[in-house]
Amino acid sequence: MIRPLTIDDLEAYRALWLDGLRRVPDAFLLTEVEALALTDISLIAKLQNERIWGSFAQDRLNGIVAMQPGRLERLRHMADIGPLYVHPSAQGQGVAQALLSVAIVAARDMGLLQLELCVDATNTRAIALYQAAGFVQFGRRPRSVIVNCRPRDDLLMLKALDAA
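The structure corresponding to this sequence follows.
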């Protein structure tokens, strides 16, 4: 079952997010130390101000996807996707595709024109997922982040939600 996360999901959300940071730190912008420093109040604000969906199996959160609509007037036509993370116990079962589909439908329902995301250039599974959902690469950001003293490139991807 996929549904929007609420304040009642705060602890499960935090636990799954930290699990992802520990297992695949290169897939997230924040470090584990930065995430651990986030207060309940800041995470509650994130749950209230962004659109974050969770996938549940037997009432256990096993996947998340976030969508941050543009807040400024000139950015209200688009939203950023991410993070998207699925616990290893639920991988290979279509959870990531289902979460991404929910976000795409929600974006269309909001009247958005496009979705954008950044993905580590070496994350071939995520890139394939996004391409299968209709995202196309429109750029590459060299040294987007520095992880363990190593520069990492991000691919910039976009999905048009209108006929453009």
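The mean pLDDT is 93.
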